[in-house]
Amino acid sequence: ITLKARKKEEKMDREFQKKFKFEGSINVLTRMMVDPAAIEKRGGAKNLPLRRGEILDVIQFTNEEQILCRNSQRKYGYVPQAVMLPL
């Protein structure tokens, strides 16, 4: 990874921590896949867009209904737990 890319990642991580009031280091707990049968959604304020079959990094199991995830574009947001499948 180039220095410029690393700085951009760090900036995105800081913005995420501020927006979600997330404290401490960002650790990937596991990776999960969006159900290929799920209905695709655009995403919103704090929700990630749902793309069928996409592999997401799980940052936090927030509650029984949603999981805080990061996608391949390094965007963070909530995803409904009901559409997530273990790899």
UniProtKB/TrEMBL annotation:
It comes from the Eukaryota. Residues 16-85 form the Helically-extended SH3 domain. Pfam families: hSH3. One of its GO terms (cellular component) is plasma membrane. GO terms for biological process: integrin-mediated signaling pathway; protein localization to plasma membrane; T cell receptor signaling pathway. SUPFAM superfamilies: SH3-domain. Keywords: Phosphoprotein. InterPro entries: FYB1/2-like, hSH3, SH3-like_dom_sf. This is PRAM protein. It comes from Pycnonotus jocosus (Red-whiskered bulbul).
